[in-house]
Design a protein that fits this description.
Radius of gyration: 21 Å
Strand order of the largest sheet: 2-8-7-6-5-3-4
Number of helices: 12
Helix content: 25-40%
Structural class: alpha/beta
Shape: globular
Distance between the termini: 54 Å
Largest sheet: 7 strands, mixed
C-alpha cells in the first residue's frame, strides 16, 4: 500500500459534493453574479479557434497585452491559473521546510493547507471585534520569529484592508529579506494598488486575480507582480504553461477594454453601498468595507431569513470568528440585490 507523506497525513481535501450551483443565486463564494458581461464573453468565444484549442497556448502576446494594460514590465509579471495557484507557487518559492509564516485571521483557508504541505507553520493575528487590525501590531508580530508574511488585503472574510501608507510603513520596518506577500484578490473594491511600491521594496510580492472583478472565475486567471529578480525565483516553480488557451485569449480580449474593469468595479461598489444601506434601514447590523460583499447579522430574524433564502435558492455563506453571527453576501447586479433585499424584508 502506498503511504502519504507524513506532513500531509492530517490534510483533508474534500471533493465538491454538489452536481451544480448554476441553478442558484450564487452569493456565497464571492463570484461575479450572474456572469461576466455578455459582450466580452461573446468576443472571447467568437474568436477562439479550433487551432488554438488544439495547440499549446502562446503566452508572449498575453504577457505583452497584460503588461500594457497594468503598466508594469513583463519581467515583473508571472501569470498563473488563478490566485490560488499563484499563492501556492509563491510559497513554494520563498519558504523552506520549517519556515514560520504569519498572517491575519480569519483568512483564505488555503494558506494553512499550503503551509502544511510545505512543512511550515502558520500563525495568525486575530482582529478586534470590528474585524480591524493595527499595522503596528502586525509589524511587532512579524518581527518575532517570522520568515514570511502573507496578508489578504482586503481580507476576504471581513473586507478589512490596510491602506497603501500602512503597507509602506510595514515594508519600511521589516527586514528587507522577509517576503511580504499581498493577496490583492479584492483590491479593486477598496481602491488600493500596492504595485507602486515595487520600485522601492524588493521583498514585496503581489497576487491578483480576474475572478472577482470581471467574472473570469471559471477561467481561473491570476498573476503575480514582483521585482524582476524575485519573479525569476518564483518562475522556477511555475508549471510548464501558465494558462490554458481559452484563458489566455480572455486576458488578451480584456486588455483591449481598459475602461471596462473600472466601470464594473464602480457599479459593484455602488450596489454594495445601496444594499448595505437597505439592510441597515431594516435594522440589521452591517459591515461594509473593501470587498465585493457585505457582512450582515440578522439577529433574531436569522432562522426566518435563511429559510426564505433556501426557498428562493439564494446561496450565502456563514462567517467564522469573530463574525460567528454574521453572513457574507456577495454583491451581484442591481436587480438581483433588489430581489434579495425584498426576500429579506418579507421574511
Amino acid at each position: 500500500m502506498i503511504h502519504c507523506r507524513k506532513l500531509a497525513e492530517n490534510i483533508t481535501r474534500p471533493r465538491q459534493d454538489y452536481d451544480t450551483r448554476l441553478d442558484k443565486i450564487r452569493l456565497g463564494m464571492n463570484e461575479r453574479y450572474p456572469a461576466m458581461p455578455v459582450d466580452i464573453f461573446n468576443e472571447i468565444m467568437s474568436g477562439y479557434t479550433i487551432q488554438e484549442a488544439s495547440a499549446y497556448p502562446e503566452m508572449k502576446s498575453v504577457y505583452d497585452a497584460l503588461s500594457k494594460y497594468i503598466g508594469q514590465p513583463t519581467k515583473r509579471i508571472l501569470l498563473s491559473g488563478g490566485a490560488d495557484i499563484a499563492i501556492k507557487t509563491v510559497l513554494e518559492a520563498v519558504c523552506e521546510p520549517g519556515s514560520k509564516i504569519l498572517t491575519c485571521y480569519p483568512t483564505y483557508v488555503m494558506y494553512k493547507v499550503y503551509a502544511k504541505m510545505l512543512n511550515c507553520s502558520l500563525r495568525g493575528i486575530m482582529p478586534d471585534a470590528n474585524g480591524c487590525f493595527d499595522i503596528h501590531d502586525v509589524i511587532a508580530q512579524a518581527k518575532q520569529t517570522t520568515d514570511v508574511l502573507i496578508l489578504a488585503n482586503p481580507n476576504g472574510n471581513s473586507g478589512f484592508y490596510f491602506t497603501i501608507d500602512e503597507i509602506k510603513t510595514l515594508l519600511s520596518q521589516l527586514p528587507s529579506d522577509m517576503p511580504v506577500i499581498l493577496d490583492e484578490a479584492y483590491a479593486d473594491f477598496a481602491g488600493i494598488d500596492a504595485s507602486g511600491l515595487l520600485d522601492e521594496f524588493d521583498n514585496l510580492i503581489i497576487i491578483r486575480t480576474f475572478s472577482k472583478n470581471i467574472g473570469f472565475t471559471g477561467l481561473q486567471i491570476g498573476y503575480i507582480l514582483a521585482n524582476e529578480s524575485v519573479i525569476e525565483i518564483i518562475e522556477k516553480f511555475k508549471p510548464t504553461i501558465e494558462l490554458n488557451s481559452l484563458a489566455a485569449r480572455a486576458v488578451k480580449v480584456m486588455c483591449t477594454k481598459p475602461d471596462l474593469l473600472k466601470r464594473l468595479v464602480a457599479e459593484t461598489i455602488s450596489i454594495r453601498h445601496e444594499f448595505a444601506t437597505g439592510l441597515q434601514r431594516l435594522g440589521f447590523d452591517v459591515i461594509e468595507k473593501g470587498g465585493n460583499f457585505i457582512l450582515v447579522n440578522f439577529w433574531d430574524k436569522t432562522e426566518k431569513i435563511i429559510a426564505a433564502f433556501d426557498k428562493e435558492n439564494i446561496e450565502v455563506k456563514s462567517v467564522t470568528a469573530p463574525f460567528d453571527n454574521y453572513f457574507r453576501i456577495a454583491i451581484a447586479d442591481k436587480d438581483t440585490m433588489d430581489f434579495v433585499l425584498q426576500v429579506i424584508s418579507k421574511a
